[in-house]
Amino acid sequence: MSTPLLELDPTSEVPIYQQIRDRVVEAIAAGSLPVGSSLPSVRALAAGFGINTATVAKAYDRLRGEGFLRTTNKSGSVVARGPGDPPSPPHVLGDWRARVLTLLAEGHAHGVPDVVAVCREVVADLAPTPREETS
Predict the structure, then answer these.
(1) What is the pLDDT of residues 85-123, one digit of tens each?
(2) CATH number given to 16-79
């Protein structure tokens, strides 16, 4: 399943709402969803994937709770923050650190040969590509 914004795997063990949340965060980090970008409505995204609206609403609720989205009656759901914004509050960073610890521990437990090298590759993939200067 996919839309221009997201690709989801219905056979994955990762719940669909989590996949939506993760793909949106990845798109924000990669710069393909800059601050102010509109996301599809809950109904439109659910219809596009043929999934329940409650699934999409749960993903959007998590994204709002984490400060990535804001939703208004006028503009719908839009990206609220991006990589260049000031750091999130300490409690958000603490939660994030705990998740990173778990992911690194999983990699180590699975025998990933160089977890640090994998992390460097992922960070490099997230680095914005330089834009050409216009005159």
Answers:
(1) 888 778 778 888 898 899 999 998 999 989 889 889 988
(2) 1.10.10.10
